[in-house]
Specification:
five-stranded antiparallel β-sheet, alpha+beta, six-stranded antiparallel β-sheet
Length: 246
C-alpha cells in the first residue's frame, strides 16, 4: 500500500532550477514522499554474496558513501529480476504512473548510510523511485524537511523529489554520524533507483510540483541548482538543515 504524506508548510519553499531542453526552468521542491512495502521474493544467495564481495573489494565504501554496482552482471545472477521490477511498476500505477518505469533510466546502487544531501544539482529534472533490496539492518531513510522517516528493509519502495534533503541514518540516531557505521558492522543497503521525469504530468501531479517559479533568475543561470530565500542553498551533511551555499 502507498502512503502519500502531506508536506509540512514552509514559510519559504526551495526552488529547483533544472535543464528543460536547452533552457533552465524553475520549479518548486516537493516535500511529498510516497512509500510502500512491496511483496518481493528473497534474493538469490549467490547474488547477495556477489554484491558483498564487490562492495568490500571494489567499492570500499566509507560511512556515508553511495556508489553504483554493475546492473547487467547482477541481472545475469538474478532470475527474478523482472518480478521485482514488475512489483515496482504495479505499485507506481497506484499514484497514477502506469508503464512509466520502462522508459526511465535505472541504476543499481549501494550505500553505507548516506550523508544528508539533495540531488537537485545533478538530477533537478527528475524524481527518484527507489526499491531497497537488502534486509533490515537498522537503517532509516530520513527526510528532515518533511519529517518522514522510513525503515529500510527488503521491498521498501519510495518516490520523492530529488531536490528534497534526505539521508540514510541509524535507526536510533537523530542525524548522520559516521560513528554509527563502524568497521565490521554490516550496514550497507543495496537498491534500484529510477529517474522519473519531473515534467511528466502524472509525476508532477503526484508530487504537487509547481513550475515556472523564479523565471527571471533562471534566465541568468547555466547550471542546475537549488535556491532558498533568494540564494543558492546546500544541505548540512550531519543535520540535513538547509544553509546558504558557499
Amino acid at each position: 500500500m502507498i502512503h502519500p504524506s502531506e508536506p509540512l508548510l514552509l514559510q519559504h519553499r526551495p526552488v529547483s532550477y533544472f535543464w528543460s531542453g536547452e533552457a533552465i526552468r524553475g520549479r518548486s521542491v516537493s516535500s511529498v514522499v510516497l512509500s510502500g512495502m512491496l511483496d518481493v521474493p528473497v534474493l538469490p544467495v549467490r547474488l547477495v554474496a556477489d554484491w558483498d564481495r564487490d562492495i568490500s573489494l571494489r567499492l570500499g565504501l566509507a560511512p556515508g558513501d553511495v556508489e553504483t554496482l554493475p546492473l547487467p552482471r547482477a541481472r545475469a545472477r538474478w532470475p527474478d529480476y523482472r518480478q521485482w521490477v514488475q512489483a515496482v511498476s504495479d505499485w507506481t500505477a497506484m499514484p497514477g504512473l502506469p508503464d512509466l518505469l520502462a522508459t526511465c533510466d535505472v541504476a543499481l546502487m549501494a550505500c553505507r548510510g548516506a550523508r544528508y544531501h539533495h540531488d537537485g544539482a545533478q538530477y533537478g529534472g527528475a524524481a527518484f523511485c527507489n526499491l531497497f533490496l537488502s534486509d533490515d539492518k537498522g537503517l532509516d531513510l530520513h527526510f528532515p524537511s518533511s519529517g518522514h522517516r522510513i525503515p529500510l528493509t527488503r521491498g521498501t519502495a519510495v518516490i520523492f523529489d530529488t531536490g528534497q534533503p534526505h539521508a540514510v541514518i541509524a535507526r536510533d540516531s537523530s542525524g548522520f554520524d559516521a560513528a554509527d557505521f563502524p568497521p565490521g558492522r554490516d550496514c550497507t543497503q543495496v537498491f534500484l533507483t529510477w529517474e522519473l521525469p519531473i515534467e511528466q504530468a502524472d509525476v508532477a501531479h503526484a508530487l504537487g510540483i509547481d513550475f515556472d517559479i523564479g523565471t527571471a533568475s533562471s534566465l541568468l543561470m547555466d547550471e542546475e541548482q537549488v535556491w532558498l530565500n533568494g540564494a543558492r542553498a546546500e544541505v548540512c551533511p550531519a543535520s540535513g538543515r538547509w544553509r546558504r551555499a558557499d
